[in-house]
Design goal:
Distance between the termini of chain A: 33 Å
Oligomer: heterodimer
Number of strands of chain A: 14
Strand order of the largest sheet of chain B: 2-3-1-4-5
Number of helices of chain B: 17
Number of domains of chain A: 2
Distance between the termini of chain B: 30 Å
Order of helices and strands of chain A: EEEHEEEHHHEHEHEEHEEEHEH
Largest sheet of chain A: 6 strands, mixed
Structural class of chain A: alpha/beta
Shape of chain B: elongated
Strand content of chain B: 5-15%
Largest interface: A-B, 32 and 24 residues
Largest sheet of chain B: 5 strands, mixed
Structural class of chain B: alpha/beta
Radius of gyration of chain A: 24 Å
Shape of chain A: elongated
CATH architecture of the largest domain in chain A: 3-Layer(aba) Sandwich
CATH class of the largest domain in chain A: Alpha Beta
């Protein structure tokens, strides 16, 4: 089943179209990367899913049901632009936000204490938010996003402003929550976290979906016959190649005694190429270069 | 618990726990009490007795040694001219000032009074000045009467002090009333509503701006609807206003009873008797009557129902304007940008406040009547009219219904602007933008 499915949703503002009719499916249990340059319509889409704004046309379903306001307690959303009441105490504020998510006072306190203990934030309970560092505030916001254990979690740039240690902490939590069966939507510009975490992605540009599918499918479909051969030699060796295979460059590596050849082949697969090349050189490594999400992103957006 | 209640509770508790609220709650009643008590103490005037030198060239004041507790020391006009007398006051510390009356010309009292001068070292006090003026005026009048061949004692004997007792015809017969008291209550109540409405409406606005600039709004509206947040905020802050008002009323009632038992019965009677003796026969018997009338008047007015109406019109006005202030808050990024929207919002109430005195002259006239129907002015206008009585029941019902319709209307409009405004950053909104937001689906 799909956690979220949209049917032809669009949104137009006075001066511009934020979203062209869009069909999107977010499979249950996936970590879904929502990608796109600034202004592509990601925030508009996320706001529609969160029912903060409604689409001009089309509909959204949540686990097979037409989405309605009672579903909002089963969604956790960490918006990109996020803040807290500066003058309010951390604990008090967390209690407030947790109760707004439909938790009772008692349950809110219990779960918050569990999280605060886990991340060693207990001493912050009675501090005011304005005393918190940005990373601290991020952690509090993360806790509040997941506190009601929703079925669908939407994180918009969850790692921005975090040091590597805290970024890893949040990443591990996201993976743990996913293991527990929740569906995760991750909107980010950090392509390495997309590759690391996401099983599915959709790429938006100018309010339109230009790419979607599983990460593997997409990378596979963007294979362009690039191979790389590393071999032992002090100088590049001239290689003899089968038909329709070309060498784009063949250079000495920075490492002493190693050369690298970049090979282009549209038709032959890697085993066919290596069978020709292997006898000619002392091979260290031969690999097919599958484009990174970063390359795919840039290429698709520029198209 | 419904999110609406959670929000209202937060708005209420964070404000009530705030130090400003505590200070306001203590200082407010003290200030109000001071407003009641201090003028009555001051008017009695525990001033130091002043010692004045008098150079009376016209012999108008002859025979007057004192005015209340102040004393006069006469100088011989033939030995002292104005300059010499001034230097005498300067040199001797015991004298507080100099009263200089020029010689009369053709016995014209007006000429003397025009050229009379009161020199003083430091502040001589307004009461003494008034007393001298009154005394001189009286003497001059007598002179004029004499010039015109009228015996002043005839005039004096014919002077009559009138003190009509105002009685309001009600269903239960008649009751005493005091015009002055009604005016004070009408003006006080409308002024308080004016202040409270803007004080608390501005708090809504500031709250909205705070949520918008800190971006917590983005977090909150994922769990609650903007309208719920808006209403929760408005109701929560209304609670703060009501609590503040109740504290004020409780303390004021206490002060009224304490002051009533202490000041009104002992001190003020002394003060009045002092005033009577100082002011002379003119006011004789007048003040005691007035005070009794005030007490009678307060008891006769239906204070409980007035407080009830006050709370209704305060809440109504607050809700009406508060909703609009919230919309303004949502449309801007900083408080400094609110000016262009604020002015048209503050003008209706300000004009009504300025018209209170006009309305009081004819509390049931057409100006007062129409202003007490229009929701934007009715909270003030009705509070001006109510203490005077004579407002028809249908008028009150209509006014209340219109006010309720009014705030439901402004809340509806604001909610539409608000839900778009809170998510709009950076661009400075114009009236045209607000209109577009209003129409956005």
């Amino acid at each position: 089943m799909n956690a979220i499915e949209s049917f032809g949703i669009d949104k137009q503002y006075e001066n511009h179209v934020a979203l062209h009719p869009l069909d999107i499916s977010i499979p249950e249990g996936s970590v879904f990367g929502l990608l796109g340059p600034n202004g592509a319509g990601k925030t508009t889409l996320l706001r529609i899913i969160n029912q903060i704004i409604s689409p001009d046309n089309g509909s959204v379903s949540f686990y097979g049901q037409n989405i309605r306001s009672s579903h909002s307690h089963q969604i956790g959303y960490l918006p990109e632009e996020r803040g807290l009441y500066k003058k309010m105490k951390v604990g008090e504020q967390s209690m407030y936000l947790a109760q707004l998510k439909g938790l009772s006072r008692k349950e809110s306190r219990k779960r918050l204490h569990w999280w605060f203990k886990k991340w060693e934030l207990e001493t912050w309970w009675d501090k005011k938010v304005e005393e918190l560092s940005k990373g601290m505030a991020q952690k509090i916001q993360f806790i509040i996003t997941v506190i009601h254990e929703p079925k669908l979690l939407i994180f918009d740039e969850p790692f921005s402003g975090l040091d590597p240690v805290n970024a890893a902490l949040i990443r591990d939590e996201i993976l743990r929550i996913k293991e527990e069966g929740a569906t995760i939507v991750l909107s980010t510009h950090r392509m390495e976290s997309v590759e690391e975490l996401c099983s599915h992605i959709a790429l938006l540009n100018h309010g339109e979906k230009i790419l979607d599918g599983t990460v593997n499918e997409i990378r596979e479909s963007h294979r362009n016959g690039n191979f790389r051969l590393s071999y032992r030699s002090n100088e590049p060796i001239t290689l003899s190649l089968p038909e329709q295979v070309e060498i784009s460059q063949n250079l000495r590596d920075f490492n002493k005694g190693i050369c690298i050849a970049e090979i282009q082949s549209v038709k032959l697969n890697s085993s066919e190429i290596i069978s020709v090349l292997a006898p000619q050189v002392d091979t260290i490594r031969f690999e097919e270069i599958i484009p990174s999400m970063n390359d795919i992103f840039i290429k698709s957006v520029k198209k | 618990m419904s999110p609406f209640i959670i929000i209202a509770l937060r708005e209420f508790t964070t404000r009530v726990k705030n130090k400003t609220f505590l200070i306001m709650s203590i200082l407010g009643p003290i200030g109000l009490g001071a407003l009641i008590v201090i003028p009555s103490l001051l008017s009695g005037g525990d001033e130091d007795p002043k010692k004045l030198l008098v150079v009376d060239n016209s012999y108008l004041l002859v025979g007057t040694e004192t005015i209340s507790e102040h004393s006069f020391q006469y100088l011989n006009p033939e030995e002292f001219d104005e300059t010499l007398a001034i230097s005498a006051v300067r040199e001797k510390e015991i004298y507080d000032g100099l009263l200089f009356l020029p010689p009369s010309e053709n016995g014209d009292p007006d000429f003397i009074l025009r050229n009379t001068r009161l020199y003083s070292k430091g502040d001589i006090g307004i009461d003494l000045t008034r007393d001298i003026e009154r005394r001189l005026g009286k003497l001059a009048t007598e002179e004029k009467l004499k010039i015109n061949g009228v015996d002043p004692s005839i005039v004096k004997n014919s002077t009559t002090v009138v003190n009509i007792k105002n009685l309001n015809l009600t269903e239960n017969g008649s009751e005493a009333s005091s015009l002055l008291l009604k005016m004070a209550i009408g003006f006080g109540a409308s002024f308080f509503i004016y202040m409270f409405v803007f004080l608390y409406a501005a708090q809504i606005m500031r709250g909205v701006i705070e949520e918008k600039t800190s971006r917590i709004i983005e977090v909150i509206i994922t769990s609650v609807k903007p309208t719920q947040l808006l209403l929760g905020k408005i109701i929560g802050i209304a609670g703060v206003g009501l609590l503040q008002f109740l504290i004020l009323i409780t303390f004021s009632t206490l002060i009224y009873y304490i002051a009533g038992s202490l000041i009104l019965e002992s001190d003020i009677t002394q003060i009045t008797s002092a005033q009577i003796s100082s002011a002379g026969e003119m006011k004789n018997g007048g003040n005691q009557g007035t005070i009794n009338q005030i007490i009678e008047g307060i008891n006769s007015l239906n204070i409980a129902s007035l407080i009830g109406f006050f709370i209704f019109y305060f809440l109504g006005g607050y809700l009406l304007y508060g909703a609009l202030f919230a919309a303004v808050g949502s449309a801007v990024d900083a408080e400094a940008d609110t000016q262009q929207f604020m002015i048209p919002l503050t003008i209706p109430l300000l004009i009504t406040l300025m018209l209170t005195m006009t309305m009081m002259q004819e509390p049931n006239g057409s100006l007062a009547m129409w202003l007490s129907f229009i929701p934007f002015s009715s909270p003030l206008a009705m509070m001006v009219r109510l203490p005077f009585g004579g407002v028809q029941t249908w008028e009150i019902v209509l006014s209340m219904l219109l006010l309720i319709t009014g705030f439901l209307g402004t809340t509806w409009i604001s909610a539409k602007i608000y839900r778009v405004g809170i998510l709009t950053y950076g661009k400075k909104a114009s009236y045209k933008d607000l209109y577009k937001w209003l129409r956005r689906k």
